[in-house]
Amino acid sequence: MRSSNSSWFKVGVFFILISGAVLLPAGLRAEALAPQVVLMPLPYAQNALEPHISSATIGFHHGKHHAAYVNKANELMAAPQFQGKKPLEVMLMAAKDPALANLFNNLAQAINHEFFWLCLKPNGGGEPPAGPLAEAIVKSFGRWAKCREELEAAALSQFGSGWAWLVADGDTLKVVKTGNAETPVTQGLKPLLTIDVWEHAYYLDFQNRRAAFVKAVLDHLINWEFVAANFARPGPYAPLEPSAEPKQKPSEP
């Protein structure tokens, strides 16, 4: 549990965190010897994405599914072999080791979900605003409509659970899809935007109409400021600025 006198940084693996699951390096808190992910509040009210995503869906998705991934990932990262490592290091280790599949699935899902929440905002969506990101989309796809078409196709063709992503591969933008908990980070790609197509992301509101959910996200909810910030920062794993300095320096363990 989060103690009242703990100091918290918002630090990132491959994205800019403004709230939500905070990735804490071991030793950031005096009592934390193992890496941790922490579920923190959404960057908007639970009902802020209505009528496109209901408060009920967000409540179950964030408060139950996402929270369960966070709790299980922390339980599994408490093993001695992970002490002194950051969550990203643990995730990349687990991605390569079939014996750590359960850890990878829960940790990657905790990270994927936090990224997804930050990709959304009320009154968002539509075409990306003019700027370097929009120019890169035109350079890579010819026009935004083509990029959108590929995002929709990836989201709809992903069999079962998974994610559709807009990523940067060097100077080129591309659309990829991943199944279950998989993430483009393990492929050396820099995620810019994602759409969650696990059924728990949309079933209460859209039932089996995944296409309608994807359209609603793209038309009304994409947080282009966040996507543009991801594109602008260097490297796929660049460290991110904390949102606030701690009130006092954490004591040495």
Automatic annotation (TrEMBL):
GO molecular function: metal ion binding; superoxide dismutase activity
Domain Manganese/iron superoxide dismutase C-terminal: 130-229
Pfam families per UniProt: Sod_Fe_C, Sod_Fe_N
Catalyzed reactions per annotation: 2 superoxide + 2 H(+) = H2O2 + O2
The keyword Oxidoreductase belongs to this UniProt entry's keyword annotation: yes
Chain ranges of the Manganese/iron superoxide dismutase N-terminal domain: 39-120
Domain of life: Bacteria
Protein name per its UniProtKB record: Superoxide dismutase
Species whose genome carries this gene: Candidatus Ozemobacter sibiricus
Lineage: Bacteria, Candidatus Ozemobacteria, Candidatus Ozemobacterales, Candidatus Ozemobacteraceae, Candidatus Ozemobacter
